[in-house]
């Protein structure tokens, strides 16, 4: 259970025996690890186009001929990926609800492979942009279903770790493409990048669909088999858990039918609107603190750190390696401590490192190679453990089942639109105010983000998805103003993972 401090107090009062999760046998743990491992293959393949622009742009700028790019075209090649991602994110909600979580993850591999084929064979800027759009659309589709699928298939006390592992694989995909870029040209890298999505399409055939989605579609027998595959247990226990799912879905359906709510009115209900605001403002701070800018423009940013003595390609690869290690560390932290502590550690650490970089890059310390590199590594590690990972984890945790697919897809749409806008204007921002003042901006927004998250972010560690949904039905807007006593007549906590 979480510590009983103001920052980490659980949503339900400690001591409720029914909220405790029974010890898991090795079979359950192994199947959930296997499931998560297969999901990480597709998320690693989604990380590769995110990092691809960092190795593509320097090669295109240094070459002669029709494919040579200037800053304007370079910014489009970088940002069009993020502009296309919202299209995929919007589609993912409909795809998740119609085809299921697993099938959606398989389908997204098709445009991703097609995008790499187009990029590999392109002979003009238009084809590169088309390939980036296809890949960006696929990456947008991946984000929500991978989080929802893992959240619905994992035990509550392991959900945070499993939900964060895809972000470690995103980081691995970025690292892998950086490493390939130091040894091969951009066409060969694009060809190699097709291997992972092709592999994941095949491996997903070995996994069952989410029991929550199957129950929602009335496929109770398949839901029972799926739940047993993931969790094991006696037939009576499996039937009991599935019945809890059925009851929850029926209650939500009856409530929606009774109130005749439109989708818009549903979103205005407190248990949807409040988490939607939290997730998307968190996503805004993710972009404004430079989390993905350093991914998209890693080589160029490092090359502008004048007199630092850094080899930009080696330093960019090093930052990708640090990001991967930090993402793995975040997965462990999500098991050991609460979401709030990780979020505040990340924003405060990002603020300190960004402000120090800003100062040192504009003073005589700018020629200190190891100092600048150390601060850059600390900056990347700090923003990875929380700012990069937590918004996606929260998408899988905070939204109620009835809108989990569409709310998740809309959230990733907004996050990607913000990412596109900032990626597009960053080269001009860098030219206008300089790289030192860019890090000053990152530091100030990180401080603002820490204040927002301290006030609003609920602690969800070890809580079932039903507990979290019940919390957002309370009247408080801010976590720091919540009622810390259990409400009279509160419904019993269920151990279902829905």
Describe this structure in words.
Helix content is about 75%, strand content about 0%. By secondary structure, it is mainly α. Helix 10 crosses helix 11. The chain is globular, with a radius of gyration of 23 Å. About 55% of the residues are buried. Residues about 1-25 and about 485-498 have low confidence and may be disordered.
Annotation, overall tally of beta strands: 0
Query: What string, H for helix and E for strand, traces the elements in order?
Result: HHHHHHHHHHHHHHHHHHHHH
Largest sheet: none
- Uncertain stretches: 1-23, 486-498
How many helices does DSSP assign?
21
What fraction, in percent, of the residue positions are helical? over 70%
Based on CA inertia axes, which overall geometry fits? globular
Q: Structural class given helices, strands, pairing?
A: mainly alpha
Q: Ends: how far apart?
A: 19 Å
Rg measurement, Å? 23 Å
* Mean pLDDT, all residues: 82
The percentage of residues in β strands lies in under 5%
Salient structural properties:
single chain; 498 residues; mainly alpha; 21 helices; 0% strand; disordered C terminus
Short description:
The chain has 498 residues and is mostly helical.
Blueprint (SSEs and pairs):
Elements: H1 26-62, H2 71-99, H3 101-107, H4 109-121, H5 125-153, H6 156-183, H7 186-192, H8 195-203, H9 211-216, H10 220-231, H11 235-259, H12 263-267, H13 270-288, H14 293-296, H15 298-303, H16 312-336, H17 339-361, H18 369-388, H19 390-398, H20 404-456, H21 465-471
